[in-house]
Queue: 2 jobs
Job 1
Amino acid sequence: MPAANQPKKRRVLIASSHGLFAQGLRSLLRERQGEDVEVVGVVSNLAEAMDSLEKLGPDLVIVDYDDEALNRDEFLARFIEGEKKLRVVLLSLQSGKEAIIYDRRTLAAAQIDDWLEEWEFMENGTLSPDGAIDNREKIQNGSVRMENRSKSGKHLVIAGILVVISTIVVAFILQNIRLLPEAASAQAASIDNLFRGEFLVIAFLFSLIVVFMVYSIFVFRRKQGDTTDAGHVTGNTRLEVTWTVLPLVTVLFFAVWGGQSLKEVTRAAADPLVVNVIGQQFAWRFEYPQANGDNIVSDKLYLPVDKPALLQLSSLDVIHSFWVPEFRVKQDALPGGEAFVRPLRITPTITGNYKLRCAELCGAGHTQMESDVIVTSQADFDSWLLGQSNLAADPVARGQKIATTFGCLGCHSVDGARLVGPTWKGLFGSEVPLLDGSQATADEAYLLESIVDPEAKIHQDYPAGVMAATYKDQMTAEQINDLIEFIRSLR
Ligand code: CUA
C-alpha cells in the first residue's frame, strides 16, 4: 500500500517496434489515468525489454500483441521467470478492445477492464494531494452508485410484491387441490394442521426462488450487442446471515410443532380396542385378543367407528409398515418378538372401506401387501365378531379361512397363477420336481412337511429361503389339517 498522502505512480513500460503504438498508448493512458501513470520507457525488441525490466522496474508492461518483430511467446516465457511483482498486458489493436493481462505472481490471465477497474478502485481508496480530478471522479462515481442503489431498490420492491402475490396464489392452490385423502381419524387433525403450515412455507420458498429467477431472466437479460462481463460479487455478509438464521428458525419452529403433533397422535386413550396386527411377506393378519371365546383372527381389519383402537404391530420376518393414508399415522411392524411390538393408536371417525398398504419395501410381493380396512358402527362390528367366533363346520371352509388369515395366499395362488411360491391349484397328488432332481408326490405328508419345515424339499422352479419356518408355532395341528384339506380341494 502506498503512503496515504503520496499515491505511487504506476510505472509503465511499452514494448512495440511501431512508434504509433507507443504514441497512441501514451495519450490513452494520460487520458484515462491522468497523473497516476508514468511511461518509463519504450522498447522495440526482446533484449531491450528484458534489460529495461531490470533497470526501469516497471509495474506494468504493455506488449504490442500484433508486433511481429517482438517474439511475444518468448517474452512471456522470460517474463514469468522474475521475482518482482509485475504484470504484462498483451494489447491487440487489430482485435478491437480485447487485451489480456498476465500476472507474474499468479500467472492468471485477466481482462483489461477488470485490471483497470482494480486500479481505479485502489486509487480511489487513497487520498490524492491534488485531488481535483479525483474528487470530481469520486463525486461522479458516487452519484452513479447512488443511482444504481435506488434502481436496485426499485427492483427489490417489485420482486418483493411479486413474491407476496405468488405466495398467496401457490398457497391457495396447495390448500385447495386434494393433495391429501379424506381425513378419517381423530389423529389426522393435528397432522393436517402441520401440513397446512408446511404448505405455506413451501409456497413462500417456491415463490422466493422462482420469482427472483424469472424476474432476473426477463429484466436483466443481456441486451443485444452487449459483450461485457457481469460485475464480480465476492460476498454479502448481511445476506448470508439472513439466509442462515431464517431457515434455522423456521426448521426449529417446525421441529417443535412436529414434536407437539407427535405427542398428540400417540396420546393413550382409556379402554381401547386392542388388535394384534401381524405383518409377514406378503400379507397382514389381525387378531382380536379381547373377544370372548376363541382368539378371533382375520385377514381384514375391522374397526368400530369413534372407538379408540390400539394396534400392536409386529412382524414374522422383515420390517413392514402399517399405513392407511386416510388415518395419516404410520408405524413400522418389526420382527423380533415381544420386545419389538410397536403400538399405533387410531380412532376412526368415518365409517367406510379403506386400504391398508405396506409402506416399507419388504420383498418381491411388497406392492401386493394390502388389506381391507373396514370401519363400521359398533353394532355391525359386534355382529361381525360374533360371526367370526362361530367357525364353519366344513374343514375346507375352515382351511380357506386359515389360508387367507395366515397370509398363505399372498404367495400361493389358488387359480394356477404363478406368484412367489407354487400355486395350490392341482397341487395335491401331483408330482413335484425338486431342486436335487428327484420328485416328490404332493400327498398329506409332503404338504405337512412343507408347512412346518419349508426348506426340507424345494421345488426346482422356486427359490429356497423365501417361506418362513414359523407356521408350526403359529398354527395348531388342527389348523394345519384344515389347510391341507383346503389344498386337497383345489383340483
Ligand atoms: Cu411388507 Cu412391504
Job 2
Amino acid sequence: MPIIYDSNNQSFNLMTKNSSYIICILENKLLLHAHYGKKIYDLSNVIDTVYEAGGAFNPVDSDIERKAFSSDAAMLEYSFFGTTDLRTCGFNGVFENGTNYVRPYYKSHRIFDGKPKLPGLPATYTEDDSEAQTLEITLKDDVLNVEFLIRYTVFENVDAITRNIEIKNLANEGFDIKSALSMTVDFSDKDFDFVHMFGGWARERQIQKIPLINGGQYVDSKRGSSSHHHSPFMALARKNANETCGEVFGFSLVYSGNFFAGVEVNSGNISRAMMGINPYNFNWRLEGGETFVTPEVVMVYSDKGFGEMSRTYHTIYRTRLVRGKYRDSHRPILINNWEGTYFDFDEEKIVNIAKKAKETGVELMVLDDGWFGHRDDDKSSLGDWYEYEKKLPNGIKGLAEKIDALGMKFGLWYEPEMISPDSELYRKHPDWCISVEGRLQNYGRNQLILDLSRKDVCDYIKGFLTDMLSKAKISYIKWDMNRNFSEVGSALLPKDKMQELPHRYMLNLYDILEYITTAFPDVLFEGCSGGGGRFDAGMLYYFPQYWCSDDSDAIERLYLQYGTSMVMPATTIGAHVSACPNHQVERTTPLSTRGYVAMCGSFGYELNPLAISQEVLDEMKEQITLFKEIRDVIHYGDMYRLSSPFEGENTCFSYVTKDKSKAVSVYVTIMGRPWPGSHRLKFDGLDENAVYIDKDTKKEYSGSLLMNIGLPVCDCKDFESRLFIFEKK
Ligand code: GLA
C-alpha cells in the first residue's frame, strides 16, 4: 500500500517506488514533518526525530506537555502564521477580530484509492483508481470554525506525490486569505542548491543554481501569468547532485498565474520549501460556507540526479496531465507562416505555401497572426475575430476548404484574451479590459488584456471560438497571449474583491479552455505566450503542446530546450526549423542541425517554402521521413541529457525506448575549436548486455561499450551535429 497510517506511532508514510514522505501527529495534535527522501519502512519512534525544543526567542507552544517545544524551531507539515511559527508560513489570514490568529489541530484523516478532481483547476489525474492513493488530513480551528484539508496523492509507480490544500470556512462571517500556498516542506538542513529557471522573451528557462543561505531565496511572478521570467518550478539538489547521481527534490506547480516558489532557511538551518499562488498581490475574501482550493504541486524525489527527476516529470505529465486525442497519438507535422510572411500574406500566398510544403510531406498548414479585423501590424484588431477581407476574400472557411482540398489539415492563430484599443470591440466595450478607472492605461505590444473576471467577456470568447470552429474545417488552434498584467483593476469587481482579479482571471481562463477543448475534442491546441511565456504544467492540461520560444535559432534552442526538458516532455515542446540567417540572432546554422534540434520536440517548420531552393526542399522531405522513423523513440522514450550547453561547448539529447530496444541521440557542437581532439560520448539508458547496431555505419557495439567507453565525437566545427540511431540486434 503506498499510504500507511501507523497508529502506534501516530504517523503516515507515503511511499512511492523509491521514496518516503513521513508526517507525524504530535500529542497536542499539531502536524510535524519527519522526512522526505529515501524509503523508510519502519516508523517506530519516528517522533523522536522531529521533536524540537526551541531556544530563547522561539515562542513556546503551551498546549504541549513536553518542555519547551516550539513550532518556530520545528519541522512542520504545513505552517500557519499567527501563533508560534514566526517564519514565512503557507497560510496567513486576517480573521473577524482583525488578527492573524489561527491554530488548527488534527481532527481526522481519510485514505482512499484514486485521486479526486480539483474543482476548476488543472491537475494530474488517474484513469483507474488503482493507479494512485490519496490521503486527506483535516485540521480544524474550532474557535474560528475553519477547516484546512491537506491532500496528498501518491503515484506509487510513477514515483511522484501531488499535494494541495483546501480551506473551508464553516463560520457565518467571512475572512481574508492573504496567503494560501499549496505546499510547505521542511527539510532538516540547508546543504542544498536552489535550482530554478529564469529568462525573458526569446530566452526562456535558463538554468540557475545557487547554494541555499540562511534567510529567504525565491522566484516568483506578479505578472498575471507564470511568465518568461521565472518558471513555477524549483529543485533542491544535494551538493553532489548532477545529471546521473545525487539527491534532487523537484517541485512543480500546476498553475499558470502569479506564483511563488522559494526556500526560507531559519537560523537553526531548517529549510522550508514553499510553493503556490503568489501572496504578494493576492487577497481572497472567503465568505461563510465557502471553500478555497489551491492548485497542486507535483513533488518528485530522485536519488539519481536531475536526469531521473526529469524522466519522472516527463512520464507523469505526458501520461497523466496532458489529455485528449493527442496525448498518445502523433501530432501532425506543421508549417507556420509567421516567420515566413509575418503580416504580409493573402489567401493565394497561403495556399501556395501549403502546396509547396505538402510536397515535402508537411501535414498541417497553420495561418498565424494577421487574418482578422484590419490587422497589418501589431497595432490593431485584437478582439475583432472576423476575417480581414482584403487578405481572405473567401474567409477562413474558404481558405480551410482549399487547404483541405490539398490533402492537408488547417490550423489558425488566435489571441483570445486580448483587446486592441484600435478595435471595434474596444469601441463598443471600453470597460472590458483590465484597467483602473480614471488612471493612465499602459500598453504592452500596443494591447490591453480582457477582463476575464467578467462573465460577459468569457461568454464572448467562448462564442467567437465556437462559431469559427463550428463553421470552418480547423484541426489546430495556436492560442497566444502577448503581454503581462499592469494596472490590475476591473470595472465590475467590488473593491473588497479587486485583489482577487488575477486568480479569478486564471480560474475563468481554465473554464474557457475546458469548455472549448471539450466541445472540440479533435482539435489540437498549441499554447503560446510570445513563445514560452506561459509554458507551465497548468497549461498542459488543456494544450498538449506549447510553442517553446520565439527564438527559433538551433543553437539558442539547445539552451531553451535543455531548460524546458527539466520538467516538460518532448511531445509538449513546440520546435520548428526556421530560415537562415535566423530572424532572432542572425546566426546561420546547417539545415541538418536545425532539423535534429527541432526533432527533439513537437516537430514543424516556420519559413516560406516559396523562398527557398529545391535542394532545401528536398532536404526538408528527407527530414520529415527521418522524423517519422524516430519520433516514437523521442516522444515516448526516456530522455537522457548527455551533455549540457550550460556547462560546455556541446549538447547531447538522447532518447531510449522503454524496452531499451532503440535509441536516438542528437549531438550538437556549439563553438568549434581547431584540432580540439576527440572525446568520447558515453550513451546512457541502454541494455548493457545487449548488442546494438549503429543505423548509420551498420557497426555493432555492446550496450556496455556504448555506455562505459562511448564513441568518439569531435567539436571541430561551429554548429555541426550528428544523429546516432542504435537498434538492438
Ligand atoms: C507571438 C508568438 C509568435 C507569433 C506572433 C504573432 O510573438 O509567439 O509565434 O505568433 O506572436 O504576432
